[in-house]
Amino acid sequence: EEAKCLATAVYYEARSESLNGQLAVAHVVLQRAKSGRFPKSLCGVVTQPGQFSFVRGGRMPATPSHAGQWRTAQAIADIAMDGSWNNPVEGALFFHSSRIQPGWAKERMTRIGGHVFYR
Prior knowledge:
- The chain has four helices and three strands; from the N terminus they run ααααβββ.
- By secondary structure, the chain is α+β, with helices and mostly antiparallel strands.
- The protein is globular and about 35 Å long.
- It starts with a helix and ends with a strand.
């Protein structure tokens, strides 16, 4: 179940991104669960109100219908969960689309593809 929640976040937030960008998004979800500042479970992090726009009323959307992209998201979730990749956003707890400028008072780390990452 936890892997499915993480894969869903990767799918809806970053499926059009590079492998590195998708893994970075997955890492933020994992880091939030470990941080003590967010829910402890991956599903709790993903369904926390106001955090991810694809979650409506605390409910996850149906499993995506595009089989290839869904399988990729599942594989990325597995890779991120086992830590077998070089993480370019170590310590990041936040990200947003590069199309917006939320004006956060957070430490900007880097931009990967269409997302900007922060501590």
